Amino acid sequence: MFDKKLLQKVLAASMSKGGDFADIFIENKKAIGIRCEAGKIERIHSGMELGAGIRVLSGENTAFAYTNDVSENGLLAAAKTVSSAVQGKQRDINIDLRTIKPVVAFDFPEPPGEVSTARKVSLVEDADKSARSIGDEAVKQVIVGYGDATIKVNMANSNGEYIEDERMRTRLLVQVVASDNDVIQTGYDAVGGLSGFELFKIYDPHELAVSVARRAVSMLSAKPAPAGKMPVVMSGEAGGTMVHEACGHGLEADLIQKELSVYAGKKGQKVASDLVSVIDDATMSKKYGSYAVDDEGILAEPVTLIKNGVLEDYLYDRLSAKKDNRKSNGHGRRESYQHKPIPRMGNTYIAQGKTDPEKIIRETKSGLLIKKMGGGQVNTTTGDFVFDVAEGYLIQNGDVGPMVRGATLTGNGPQVLQIIDMVGSDLGFSIGTCGKDGQGVPVSDAQPTIHIPEIVVGGTSHDADGSEQIKQIRRL
């Protein structure tokens, strides 16, 4: 616990020349990353980071400063910097901090900090061997990345609220490159969660590595994907890339207020099929985008964004909530103490339906089945998107047919949500590091198996998919 009297003094100094609200975010982070390439451990890097970010809100303006000096002098110097950016009269502020306790509690049976580096290296090496164990000469490259972080945060604000939180995140990713003459294909997958080393009791690293390798090799002999408009079944296994990119970002309140979202001004209106409900729930256990309290000290809660096709809410931080004269719903997130909070997703998903996923495939006479999504782009202002398909199959007479490669999906997010006519009873998650305004935060997204009656399927850009995957590996 940081000395409350010191924090009260720093907050008072930051508001000494005016301002409507001030807060301080102190972060103590310990992390390790391990990378294996070409059958050997290429890099192990670990470190600790300690620092504080101090912010003052004045009207719609934000003054923000950060420092890695968390001594009294260091914090007061940062407070003086932000206070000098506020135009107002000199005043004395008295703040009495009271402790707020998170309602949601997460458990970490095997804290990563208590697991030896040797054991982590062994897990990475075993995953590398597993990917190569399929015994196919087409496997040319295997990259395995492991990362974990233990973060302790202290937050206090001028409303008199003080809160502490501890977050542990662990993840593992595998990328396999296979080639046959002039054909090159890549397989990629990752698992992670707000979890310690117990993550690998939920996800088997061996199974993950083997499935990625087999997918890369199988894609070498896959047929070129057909082009044109056709029905598409997106399996729950595909994860929630579609809902995250084509819908989730457009529901973040800052983009709404800047009118940079297709969903601006549509609260209470029909924006999706009656079968579609979209939820962001940061309180879910063991998910990568989970947290008990956001990075502004707001307690996390499930937020229903779209209910039975009707737009109900947006994702808010304190500043965007203030502009709309309401309370934040706990989605102010930041990459680190060096960044100011902005509205961000946590765990975003399309809610489960009642239809058997196998029935959805059977009732699709022809089309494309997607089991894994790749990278993509979306224009939040219009909702237009282009996504690569990492693993796809033709559907022929209601059966799963041959694998195809080189497929992309092109469409408009709101329009796709409007025409979904079957929603499965399953739910599949994927993880990632979501980028926005130069910040990256851990997120999860999910969807059940869904049926889209018609969408444009076209060619793909292998470079876009591959570069995105490499970027994710480097973030470890």
TrEMBL record:
Segments forming domain Metalloprotease TldD/E N-terminal: 22-83
Record keyword Hydrolase present: yes
Superkingdom of origin organism: Bacteria
Domain annotation Metalloprotease TldD/E central: ranges: 110-220
Region named Disordered: 322-341
Keyword terms: Hydrolase, Metalloprotease, Protease
Gene3D superfamilies assigned: PmbA/TldD superfamily (3.30.2290.10)
Domain Metalloprotease TldD/E C-terminal: 228-459
Start-end of Basic and acidic residues biased regions: 322-338
Matching Pfam families: PmbA_TldD_1st, PmbA_TldD_2nd, PmbA_TldD_3rd
Recorded GO MF terms: metallopeptidase activity
UniProt keyword Transmembrane, yes or no: no
One example of a Gene Ontology biological process annotation: proteolysis
InterPro entries recorded: Metalloprtase-TldD/E_C (IPR045569), Metalloprtase-TldD/E_cen_dom (IPR045570), Metalloprtase-TldD/E_N (IPR002510), Peptidase_U62_metallo (IPR051463), TldD (IPR025502), TldD/PmbA_N (IPR035068), TldD/PmbA_sf (IPR036059)
One Gene Ontology CC term in the entry: cytosol
Similarity section: Belongs to the peptidase U62 family.
The protein, known as: Peptidase U62 modulator of DNA gyrase
Species the sequence originates in: Desulfofarcimen acetoxidans (strain ATCC 49208 / DSM 771 / KCTC 5769 / VKM B-1644 / 5575)
